[in-house]
Specification:
Helices cover about 10% and strands about 30% of the residues. It is built from three helices and 18 strands. The strands form six sheets. Strands 10, 11, 13, 14 and 16 form a five-stranded antiparallel beta sheet that branches. β17 and β18 form a beta hairpin. The chain is elongated.
Length: about 290
Amino acid sequence: TDLPSVTVASGGLATGAQSVHSPTTDAFVTRFNRELTQRTQSSYLGGTGNDFAYALAIHPASGEVYIAGQTSSTDLPSVTVASGGLATGAQSLKSTGDDAFVSRLSFDLAAGDFVPNGFAFAPKLNVPLSSLQTSDPAQITGVAGNVPVSIVGGNFAEFCVSGTAGCSCNVLPFSAAPSTVNDSQYVCVRQVAPAFTPGLAKTTLVVGGGWADFYVTTAIPFVSCNLDIDGSGGAPNPITDGLMLVRAMLGFTGTAVTNGAIIGTPPRNTWALIQPYLNSNCGTSFLP
């Protein structure tokens, strides 16, 4: 009945999501620091029956703790949600015998709802190469307390938190470091677009037990194919430019393309200059 709690910096004891022991056997979860030299939180888990924990897993991004076990309790604790009332699981009624159970606790094992309502970011499509792109703001709702927020992936990705609609970032400036967000606050994500086309960059923002992706894409730029192949200026000449294009399309290379088709000294007077010009500007794939 006296599972150790944690003395917090402000004085007093920090209790877990379930601080009171039930009359019978309870499961429990305790979290330690990385070095196992300090206990950071403990919580009971159970109702008025017997409750046993057999498996535990930790979410790699949010740090939430998942516990699976066996219960004979008819009152296994539910969660009070921000909008009032109790949130129950997919199966809220117990059978006549023992049941298996699954519970999810916040990363700090404290009371509170760390699963936000759904949120999303609209993608930024066909943007300039290497440009900095910022998402529209997304409001986080349906949570209670300080909910962990972090960013995964992306190209120089960061996020910020605002107290009002928009990306004012007046609560937390743009940063890649994990932090927290409260109910009704706004989050924005930004990242650098790829430096190539076509390109895709994806950043995932994790808020408690929920997440959303922010996509940024670059498109293949429109290229105007100028058939002034030799670069002499003016309209394409069928006797020179046209002849070389037909030869190239027939599979000729080198001097077999340019012999008799070069007049004077235009800027592109060899196949070594013409071949990359056509491939880069006209979508061809002629061999050297």
